[in-house]
Write a structure and sequence with these properties.
flat, alpha+beta, 44 strands, four-stranded antiparallel beta sheet
């Protein structure tokens, strides 16, 4: 009888495989659509959780698919900071980097919720000593399906791209509206929701999650060790002293909850919170934190607690996400990078994963506030320029979204609440500037920052199973915004301001009537303006000089002066003479007292209003006698600024005289336009010659160095090191100083000036000739193409040139001239001429050869 399975057995096996495939397909299809239950503890096993024995069956992979391929690649980061892209590995510890500090101020998402929450993005399974990794693990179904437990919906709008979507624990469904999510969303084996490709920074989605357990007494019945979850959650490699310290902390605790609470309280009380006072991380973070550090931040606390729990065979995992956020009105929270957080989840049979947070809450909140203390939670804009007494509409946003149901406070007064579009209209107060603050309604929940109390067995017990919430309320730290107000106040009398007369005064602000403004004239209060900004005032009998007039309302006050006596204007040039293009100051007075607010024009063009000192500055125009006119309170005076053109003529004559003196001095020294041009040409020629020579020399030097390096390399690395060691003594910077001296000498020679009959003049002429001879010689060897000519004598260079076909006569002539320069001989000018003639012959021969 054959041992091979018969047809019935094969069909049964195939049916099992197909059933598994259908279960996997029914689970994956809704998730791929992004609109249906994602699973979690309430879902059937995912394809990655199918027993390995079944996966080894023929055709199983084709039916079940490749889990890694379905999940995509989400390895965008290695740190829990910036938890929207946590990656498959997470480093732990170390001081915050500048990039992390910059990220702390940025908005990551805005969430709608009835209270502040923990926003979970991912969990890690394997402790590496220096961080965490995510491995494929099995999920366990809870005893009750999601339909039998209360759920709630929250809406999240991302302000940064995300591959791991923040959700409350435990998510069971996710929707993205009528247009869908645009990405494949899937539930990871550790309960996080992943998006591939990443959700965009403007994506909005709604997530349904199971509400926290409200009967925490059931946790007391779970034994300390042993669990149905994957052994990866109870396995840890750590030091003996960590295990010993954990045993001391746990003491005689006889249930899992008490063990977790004792470890949590121990870390909260024994360690302090700090983002800066931490060392560089080692290869055993928990050991380092427990025994060598006094302070740390959430990554240290959560890693230590998870490691300590696992050392007692308690299933626990390291979780990253965000905690809290800033309340920004209408049940919405602005969550920044500074809110990124790490905590611990402990598994309890018949309950599921329960959160514990060993990080000190108050200290963490203080550090969070410091990270973005200069950042505003709200931005305010106005629809137009603010004018006192006029209506404007303010738009308030938070992270680019309308801020709903928040209060707008202008100059200390609450002016209204924003609507669903984040807008509120208000009347601009009478002030020169607006200071705008945004206030939110206090949103304090019943929960404390770490635990929610519950009564068990007649005594008060605290459990970490409801959402630990940081109370969100207006703390007065938001930076107010300021806006300038068009508060240009003007006064106008209906006639001359004469002593003892009664006049009607009209006051305007930004061209509109200034109503209900208190007006005083000459220090005597006259009353308030009407709706048209008018008021009848009495001019004092003893008024003289200038009269002060003031109008004020609330925080806006303006004072101006009106002339009672005749106006007078005087002009003071900034220089000794009134030169065109320079500045002058006009002084407007009445009865010897300065007049402010007077309009001043120069040659018919307005130059401004006088200040409190009665002055205004302007530029003197090029006119024979520019008219300066001052006007105030319908009074006008005019003066003329004389001596403008004569001053300009004198200035021109002085400049021409100076120029003539310079030209005469130059002629006496033999400098003419022709000599100047010659000098410039000579300098240009010398510069080009030097550059060509330098490039040729550099090319030769590089060739020599390359040859030396090849020779040194033949001796191995010792030879190469010895060659490098010899370079500093042989490499020299260009002789720029000598080149500049040569250029100066060439300029002198090119200008055609005769040398002074003294020793220094002779020396300068000789240096110039020698410098030009050197340049001619360098051009010669460049034409010939002699290698390493610096190490050869002039005769050797000449022989090599003749061997290459250059004519003997000019070659020998040039060589002789250069030798005379180097070793003495004929006069400098004669050998320079011979050298240049010889070089021209060589070049001519080269051109003829090229034409043939």
């Amino acid at each position: 009888m054959s041992d091979a399975p018969g047809p019935d057995a094969r069909r049964a096996l195939l049916a099992v495989v197909c059933a598994i495939g259908l279960v996997a397909a029914s689970t994956a299809a809704p998730a791929l659509a992004g609109q249906a239950p994602l699973g979690g503890l309430d879902s059937p096993p995912a394809p990655g959780e199918v027993p390995e024995l079944l996966r080894q069956l023929p055709g199983a992979d084709a039916l079940l698919g490749n889990v890694d391929g379905q999940r995509g690649n989400f390895d965008f980061g290695t740190s829990a900071f910036g938890a929207l892209t946590p990656g498959r590995t997470a480093d732990v510890g170390g001081p915050m980097s500048p990039g992390q500090r910059a990220n702390a101020t940025e908005a990551h998402f805005v969430a709608e919720a009835d209270e502040s929450r923990y926003w979970r993005t991912e969990a890690y399974t394997t402790y590496t000593g220096s961080g965490w990794e995510r491995q494929q693990v099995n999920r366990v179904q809870p005893p009750r399906p999601v339909e039998e437990r209360p759920t709630e919906w929250n809406e999240i709008t991302l302000r940064q791209p995300a591959t791991s979507l923040p959700t409350p624990w435990r998510p069971v469904d996710l929707t993205c509206g009528n247009d869908g999510c645009g990405s494949t969303v899937a539930l990871s084996t550790t309960g996080g929701i992943e998006a591939n490709p990443a959700f965009s920074e403007s994506q909005t989605y709604r997530v349904q999650s199971v509400e926290p357990l409200n009967a925490p007494s059931v946790l007391d019945d779970v034994r300390v060790a042993g669990s149905v979850v994957d052994t990866e959650y109870t396995t840890v490699e750590t030091t003996d002293r960590v295990r010993e310290r954990t045993a001391e902390v746990v003491g005689d605790a006889d249930n899992r909850y008490d063990v977790a609470r004792r470890i949590e309280q121990h870390l909260e009380s024994e360690k302090t919170y700090s983002l800066t006072d931490v060392p560089e991380p080692g290869d055993q973070i928990t050991d380092q934190f427990l025994f060598e550090q006094d302070a740390g931040y959430c990554e240290y606390f959560a890693t230590a607690m998870t490691t300590m729990l696992r050392s007692q065979d308690v299933p626990a995992r390291y979780v990253v996400g965000y905690a809290g956020g800033e309340y920004v009105g209408d049940n919405r929270y602005l969550v920044r990078g500074a809110d990124a957080h790490a905590w611990v989840e402990v598994y309890f049979e018949d309950v599921g994963w329960v959160r514990f947070d060993p990080t000190p809450g108050d200290a963490r909140e203080s550090a969070r506030d410091e990270l973005h203390e200069d950042e505003r939670d709200f931005d305010v804009s106005l629809n137009r320029t603010a004018v006192p007494g006029e209506r404007v509409t303010a738009t308030v946003t938070t992270a680019g979204l309308p801020a709903r149901d928040v209060a707008l406070v202008v100059n200390g007064d609450r002016v209204g609440q924003t609507d669903e579009n984040g807008t509120v209209a208000f009347t601009v107060p009478y002030a020169e500037q607006l200071r705008v603050d945004v206030e939110t309604t206090v949103n304090v929940t019943a929960s404390s920052s770490s635990l929610a109390p519950a009564s068990v067995g007649g005594g008060d017990r605290a459990y970490s199973i409801t959402s630990p919430v940081v109370a969100q309320q207006d703390d007065g730290n938001d930076s107010a915004q300021t806006f300038d107000v068009n508060a240009d106040v003007r006064f106008a009398f209906d006639g001359d301001v004469d002593p003892g007369t009664e006049r009607t005064l009209t006051v305007t602000v930004a061209g509109r009537p200034f109503p209900d403004a208190t007006v005083s004239v000459g220090g005597v209060e006259q009353g308030r303006t009407d709706d048209e900004g008018r008021i009848t005032v009495q001019i004092p009998e003893d008024a003289s000089g200038v009269l002060e007039v003031t109008a004020s309302r609330d925080d806006l006050s303006e004072t101006t002066t009106y002339p009672v006596d005749a106006l007078s204007v005087a002009v003071s040039p900034s220089l000794v003479a009134p030169l065109p293009g320079t500045t002058a100051t006009a002084h407007v007075t009445s009865g010897g007292e300065p007049v402010s607010g007077a309009s001043v024009t120069v040659v018919g063009k307005s130059v401004g209003m006088t200040d409190a000192d009665g002055t205004v500055s302007f530029e003197i125009p090029l006119t024979r006698a520019p008219a300066v006119v001052a006007t105030a309170s319908e009074k006008t005076t005019t003066t003329y600024l004389g001596w403008v053109l004569p001053s300009a003529a004198v200035a021109v004559l002085v400049a021409l005289s100076a120029l003539a003196g310079v030209v005469l001095s130059a002629q006496q020294r033999g400098i003419t336009p022709r000599t100047v041009v010659g000098a410039l040409v000579a300098v240009a020629r010398e510069s080009v010659s030097y550059a060509v020579g330098a490039l040729v020399g550099l090319a030769g030097a590089l060739d020599d160095l390359a040859a030396e390096l090849r020779t040194a390399a033949a001796d191995g690395w010792r030879g190469v090191l010895a060659w490098f060691a010899s370079l500093p003594g042989r490499v020299h910077l260009p002789d720029v100083r000598g080149w500049l001296a040569g250029v100066a000498a060439t300029a002198g020679a090119g200008s055609g000036r005769k040398s002074e009959p003294n020793e220094r003049g002779v020396e300068s002429s000789a240096d110039a000739a020698d410098g030009r001879l050197q340049a001619v010689w360098q051009r010669f060897v460049a034409v010939v193409g002699v290698d390493r000519w610096e190490t050869k004598t002039p005769a050797e260079v000449a022989r090599e040139a003749i061997a290459r076909g250059f004519p003997k006569k000019p070659v020998y002539a040039l060589t002789a001239a250069f030798r005379d320069a180097a070793y003495g001989g004929r006069s400098e000018s004669s050998r320079l001429d011979r050298a240049e003639e010889a070089l021209d012959s060589v070049r001519e021969d080269e051109r003829e050869e090229g034409e043939r």
